[in-house]
Structures are given as structure tokens and as C-alpha cells.
Design brief:
- Helix content is 25%, strand content 34%.
- By secondary structure, the protein is an alpha+beta fold.
- α3 packs across α4.
- The chain folds into two domains: 97 residues, no CATH class; 41 residues.
- InterPro entries: Transpos_ISL3.
Length: 146
């Protein structure tokens, strides 16, 4: 592991060791300045048979919205999830992490922060604006509690 990878993981408070950070930069998207981290999510073993004899079959790129201390500069993690095929059981899978749920692009820590903001007496619009998400996302997080 490189020291910059460890520093980024420490700064973002990410404990998953299968995420390897490659680079970070600023980019303007839709008129908003974003801080973008590039990372790869690796699959060390087959989730079905625990074999380490794997064939790497490309990556799936997702953009994960992550929490930030400065709401004026939102954070995106450009995550490349590794696709694999097991040589032993011939099953295919994709790397998964506790950072983000399957089929989702908003990090679990962002959802928890939105949930804690919902306990205060504030509008959903102000919560969505503060966390750089939509009002529908805030409503979905609220509905997931029931």
C-alpha cells in the first residue's frame, strides 16, 4: 500500500482494505466544483467457494456521493468495481463493499448523516442542499427506516 492510499482512506474514514485509491483531483460538473477521488474495489477471493484462482473480467465504474465537511465542495468517489470469474466454480461476481450498497450510488455514511439531520426540525430541501443530494433521496432514506 502506498502512503497516499493510506492517507486518503484515513482522511475519508474508510476502513475497507479492498478499496485502493489511485488519484484525486478537482473537476467542475454542472457548474459545481467537485473533489473527485479515483479508487478501485478489488475482489480478493470468490464469494461462493473462497477460491483465489480468479479471472479478472473488467470493471464497472460508479460515482459514489460521499460526506464532506465543506458543503460547497462535494466529494465524489469514482469507484471501479472489479468483475471476476472463478476458475474453480465458474461463477461470475462483482466486488462489493460496505462503503455503498449494491445498485446504489450514495454512500452508507451519507445516508446515516442524512438520517441524523432528519431528527432536527428542518425542511427536507435544506437537508438535501446541505448533503448535495435530491429531496427524493432524503425521502427514500426516511422511508427506509420504516
Amino acid at each position: 500500500m502506498s502512503s497516499s492510499n493510506d492517507y486518503i482512506r484515513f482522511a475519508l474514514d474508510i476502513e475497507d482494505h479492498n478499496i485502493v485509491f489511485k488519484d484525486y483531483f478537482y473537476k467542475i460538473l454542472n457548474g459545481t466544483k467537485y473533489k473527485i477521488y479515483e479508487a478501485e474495489l478489488i475482489q480478493p477471493a470468490c464469494p461462493f467457494c473462497s477460491s483465489v484462482s480468479l479471472i479478472h473480467n473488467g470493471h464497472l465504474k460508479i460515482h459514489v456521493r460521499y460526506i464532506t465537511a465543506n458543503a460547497s465542495v462535494p466529494v465524489l468517489i469514482r469507484l471501479f468495481k472489479q468483475r471476476i470469474k472463478c476458475r474453480d466454480c465458474s461463477k461470475r461476481s462483482m466486488a462489493q463493499s460496505s462503503l455503498v450498497n449494491k445498485y446504489c450510488c450514495i454512500s452508507n455514511t451519507s445516508k446515516l448523516k442524512i438520517l441524523s439531520a432528519l431528527t432536527e426540525d428542518r425542511s427536507m430541501t435544506s437537508i438535501a442542499r446541505e448533503h448535495n443530494t435530491s429531496v427524493n433521496t432524503v425521502q427514500r432514506v426516511l422511508a427506509s427506516c420504516f
